[in-house]
Amino acid sequence: MVHGYSPYHWCLVSECKKTSVKTPEKLWIQVPTDLKMRNTWLKLARRDPKSLSTKTKYYFCEDHFDLENDMENYTQLKIMGSVKRIRMRPNCIPSRFDCQPGRKRTFTEKQKSGLQAKNFVTINVFIRGRLVLSAFTKPSSMVNIYSIGAEYQETPLVLTARSNL
């Protein structure tokens, strides 16, 4: 859930039928205002950038992103259940197009190696043997664990880290 944003959205991706009415639980990511990045997103969505107003706010549904890797405040969303504003990583582009025939959902091998080359680590938080949080972050990043629930207050946390170096 994201606080303070328009209640109705429809996904701009060609062939995607998601709307905030049909799927109210979905997150909605605004198409960037930077013209170069905006055009990249629109072309990936199989939309003609010249046919769409540059002044209108358009949105993609969360299905077209790898939120864990593409969203800067994903960890906060998972822990707290909501964020004030969705913050996508700089130069993030949509990469999943299951709704479009003939398109793949997963990253290409080049994209995967690019992620690994950026020295990311996966941090998992286990409480009572149950995975309650998984974060994909840079080793120098701070992972904040705000509140996971009252039932776990006296339970020790178990953290594991896996390097993609």
Automatic annotation (TrEMBL):
Lineage, broadest ranks: Eukaryota, Metazoa, Ecdysozoa, Arthropoda, Hexapoda
All copies of domain THAP-type, residue ranges: 6-97
Keywords: DNA-binding, Metal-binding, Zinc, Zinc-finger
One of the Pfam families matching this protein, by short name: THAP
Keyword Transcription regulation in record: no
Record-level Gene Ontology MF annotations: DNA binding; zinc ion binding
Source species: Spodoptera exigua (Beet armyworm)
Protein name: THAP-type domain-containing protein
